[in-house]
Amino acid sequence: MTSTADHVALSRFSLGDFAEQDRMAAWRDLYGRLVLQADLAPLSDHPLHADVTVRVLPGVSITSASMSAFCYERGAEQLADGNDGLALVVSSHGARMMQCGREVTSNAGDALLVSSADPLAMVCPAPAQLLCFHVPRAALAPLVSSVDRAVMRPIARSTEALKLLTSYIGALEDYALATPELCHHVAAHVHDLIAVALGATHDAAVLANGRGVPAARLRAIKADVIGHLNRADLTVVAVARRHGVTPRHVQRMFESDGTTFSQFVLGQRLARAHRLLVNPRYAGRAVGTIAFEVGFGDLSYFCRAFRRQYGATPSDVREAARRGPVNSLCTP
């Protein structure tokens, strides 16, 4: 399935959509030779499996895949397509890659930059989650001291820029990227983070530190907060510790975004409570139970904050939702 707009395209490929007898051909010919411009072969004794999502933005395409064990080869026949782009590959399982006379076995979570302009072989000996960033060479060349020297040099999973990059992309899954401007900003952030992970030039590093890296770090911290809303110990100190920065640094990032850490947490908790209150699946759940589930320890404080935010009590919002949208007192 593919959805497109002038500025973004989202494609999905799953072997589950094919009859079992057609899956090998679909994987090898449709996905391998047509989409990847490469030869794919399964490893023996591993059931064939592939679920792939590709998001194409201006200047970068991002592939997220769940794959069974496989061999990948891009040889002379495929190189005739003229693609000289670069791909940063992150695998949840160790993989072996061979390119430009070098053979590298990466560890789980490490990244490796490869070139589409040179023959490449890759063996992933076990099922894995793959994250690949395909970027035009011209986009990275001005940002990195030497793109060619960066090819086939592993980037450890502990590298700060790589952690930010993967967190940033994970958070983006919840966003539609509805405008061309937003898509261009996201692509620029991805370029910056890849460049910093590879070893950016001084000028590019300064630019990235003023553009992509802070944005990616803040988005990762916001995703962390949203994932822990139900925790009573959700504090700026705990979040800062998880991200290896000081609490004051976290506070400054939220201030630069026009809010505070506490205001963001409160707004997210109230929004989650509102979604639960208007959802018929939770109609039998008490207001107090919902308040505690989203992280409030004081029911009276929750009700006061909720009314300030939505102009109605939690019970009134629930009742309005039950009656239908015509009589709703407020909107989510």
Shape: globular
CATH superfamily grouping of one domain: Jelly Rolls
The CATH architecture of one domain is Sandwich
Main sheet attributes: strand count, strand direction, barrel closure: 7 strands, antiparallel
Strand order of the largest sheet: 1-2-4-5-12-7-10
Number of helices: 14
CATH hierarchy class name of one domain: Mainly Beta
Task: Give the helix/strand class.
Answer: alpha+beta
Give the distance, in angstroms, between the N- and C-terminal Cα atoms: 30 Å
CATH topology of one domain: Jelly Rolls
Using the CA coordinates, give the radius of gyration. 23 Å
Return the string of H and E elements.
Answer: EEHEEEEHEEEEEEHHHHHHHHHHHH
Instruction: Bin the strand percentage.
Output: 15-25%
Helical percentage: 40-55%
- The overall pLDDT average reads 84
Model regions low in confidence, pLDDT < 50 over at least 5 residues: 1-7, 324-332
Number of strands: 12
